[in-house]
Amino acid sequence: MGPVVSAAALAFLAWNAASLEVDPARVARGLARVRDVAARAVPPDFGRLDLLGAGVLESVEIATLSTLFGVLLGLPVAVLAARTVVPLPVYAVGRAVVALGRTFHELIVAILFVKAVGFGPLAGVLTLTVNSVGFFSKLLAEEIERMDRGQIEAVRATGANPVQVLLYGVLPQVLPRIVGLTVYQWDIHLRQSTIIGIVGAGGIGATLYNAFARYDFDFALAILLVIVLIVLAGEAVSALARQRVQ
Fold it and tell me: Which end of the chain has fewer CB within 10 Å, C or N?
């Protein structure tokens, strides 16, 4: 069976490679253009700090607001999607909402919101909020399903209503996870906010797109370097916050 599977895999890879229809001459011309762009991009132009600063600030604002709204909306969805705390029909609805929030890539959602509300950071906030609800609620629902049932039953035994059960039986057990997921989600959104701007949803990505559109390659390289610094700074803040939580 091993040789047969290997041969089939190689044949499949060869078929896929052939379907690409790679033109060596076209690749060579493309490499020449890459060298031209690289030569025009070095050294990077950091002279327009006002545009860079505005783009960075907008990306941070998009990441922060979308994380806040996503967590606030994702908390009730996570409870509805936890099989151990809600009836089956409610669980089915909650899981459907989670699946819907995770179905589409953020670039597709960004295009839809840009068409709906226009270019700018509002489209970015709405896009990443939708993305956040699906991601956050799924992971938190799984955490709720794994938690200790004894504490919940003890709270119920006191005659507590469903809201009190959530506040005193569920929330204390999952609060560290909520904080950790929130920080992790913000870190992800900080990176995503630099991408969705390419389709007009605000942030430093929009500044990058405009630089490429104007063939302003030295400024584009400066923006790319700033994006790297943003991601590294976000990683550092996220790691520090997770250490504090743990």
Answer: N
Q: Is the pTM of this model over 0.85?
A: no
Q: For residue 44, say if its preceding peptide bond is cis, omega within 30 degrees of 0.
A: no
Those residues whose C-beta lies under 8 Å from the C-beta of residue 132, and which sit 6 or more positions away, are 66, 67, 69, 70, 71, 73, 74, 185, 189
DSSP line for the chain: -HHHHHHHHHHHHHHHHHHT---HHHHHHHHHHHHHHHHHHPSP----HHHHHHHHHHHHHHHHHHHHHHHHHHHHHHHHT-TTTS-HHHHHHHHHHHHHHTTS-HHHHHHHHHHHH-SSHHHHHHHHHHHHHHHHHHHHHHHHHHS-HHHHHHHHHTT--HHHHIIIIIHHHHHHHHHHHHHHHHHHHHHHHHHHGGGTS-SHHHHHHHHHHTT-HHHHHHHHHHHHHHHHHHHHHHHHHHHHH-
234 in Cβ contact with 187 (< 8 Å):
yes
Q: Return the domain boundaries, the chain.
A: 49-245
Architecture category of domain 49-245 in CATH: Orthogonal Bundle (1.10)
